[in-house]
Amino acid sequence: MRVTICIGSACHLKGSREVISQMQALVAEKGLGNRVDLNGAFCSGNCVKEGVCVTVDGELFSVKPEETRDFFEREILGRA
């Protein structure tokens, strides 16, 4: 599963660094390093979203740092 987190300036200001850090910890905690490919990418062109732009296998989501764990459990762990 490919998970891409926007690290462009707008998403950086919305907390992309925190989202990335939490995602890395959750992937490691759940032992999914061989099933989840975490990536960073510059602007995805969806800056009007309220949270950080995250794609899971091409499907776009908007994730706030405080929602990262819930998002991970629902969208990543649920698919893995």
Provide the descriptors you would attach to this structure in a database record.
80 residues, alpha+beta, 3 helices, 36% helix, 25% strand, globular
Q: Helix and strand succession? A: EHHEEEH
Tell me about the largest β-sheet: 4 strands, mixed
Provide mean pLDDT, rounded: 93
**Termini distance?**
8 Å
Number of H- or I-type helical stretches: 3
- Strand percentage: 25-35%
What sort of overall outline do the alpha carbons produce when their principal axes are compared?
globular
Structural class computed from helices and strand pairing: alpha+beta
Helical content stands at 25-40%
- Let me know the number of strands: 4
Computed CA radius of gyration, to the nearest angstrom: 11 Å
Q: Name the strands of the widest sheet in spatial order.
A: 2-1-3-4
Extract low-pLDDT stretches: none
